[in-house]
């Protein structure tokens, strides 16, 4: 597995949280009046003890949850008043996600997992597959693309998850524990890929318990 460049965002966007608060159902607030700005070309680590709300915050930043108060601004535009459909469209256009433990769809082939965000966005199927294959190739995933996620290693799954997150060349890349449970070689590979993406103009936000990964980021925000 060699260190290789991994593309660049199609465009640059800023991301900001303004006084964001959130609670699940009627429980205690998990996030209270939290604000931060994320600029293109930067890689930020969100750190803190287990259960503090790091993943929740990532879902709020990625428009998968709606704040109870406050707002998330994507490229300066408040997202709070957008309809669900427009939020979904903005999410598909602006964000790539690497979920905790890769979270691949076990029922679909590897290439279908990778191309899914591009197809959801309405991209041409053949072009999406070409981009997906190029990413898998760049990330050294040398597997039959019709294989299913149940038949691969954790390190391969994480590189496939990264390919899926990058297939739309998103301006903003959000990653939840992208190096959890990986061997040192794959960890280094993933960290370099994330850093390269930030250097190429992406906003990269990473939730992590890894002190080593946080140290490789441009800044660390502790929750
Ligand atoms: N869907 C949910 N419904 C209700 N409570 C939830 C839900 N998801 C998470 N929580 C609770 O919200 C709190 C914050 O969870 P979250 O996963 O955001 O924390 P975290 O800092 O990412 O934790 P970890 O480092 O262990 O992954 C926890 O107490 C968790 O139990």
Automatic annotation (TrEMBL):
The keyword ATP-binding applies. One of its GO terms (molecular function) is ATP binding. Keywords: ATP-binding, Nucleotide-binding. Residues 15-223 form the ABC transporter domain. The keyword Secreted does not apply. It comes from the Bacteria. Belongs to the ABC transporter superfamily. This is ABC transport system ATP-binding protein. It comes from Plantibacter cousiniae (nom. nud.).
């Amino acid at each position: 597995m060699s260190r290789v460049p991994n593309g660049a965002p199609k465009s640059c966007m800023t991301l900001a949280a303004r006084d964001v608060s959130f609670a699940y159902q009627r429980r205690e607030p998990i996030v209270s009046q939290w604000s931060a700005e994320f600029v293109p070309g930067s890689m930020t680590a969100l750190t803190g003890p287990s259960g503090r709300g790091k993943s929740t915050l990532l879902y709020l930043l990625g428009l998968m949850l709606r704040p109870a108060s406050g707002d998330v601004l994507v490229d300066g535009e408040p997202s709070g008043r957008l309809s669900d459909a427009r939020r979904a469209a903005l999410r598909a256009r602006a964000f790539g996600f690497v979920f905790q433990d890769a979270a691949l769809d076990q029922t679909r082939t590897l290439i279908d997992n990778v191309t899914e965000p591009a197809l959801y966005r309405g991209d041409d199927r053949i072009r999406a597959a070409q981009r997906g294959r190029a990413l898998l190739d760049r990330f050294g995933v040398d597997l039959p693309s019709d294989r299913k996620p149940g038949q691969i290693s954790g390190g391969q799954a994480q590189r496939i998850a990264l390919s899926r997150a990058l297939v739309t060349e998103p301006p903003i890349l959000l990653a939840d524990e992208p190096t959890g449970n990986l061997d040192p070689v794959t960890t280094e590979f993933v960290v370099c890929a994330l850093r390269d993406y930030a250097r190429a103009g992406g906003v990269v936000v990473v939730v992590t318990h890894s002190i080593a990964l946080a140290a490789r980021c441009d800044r660390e925000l502790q929750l």
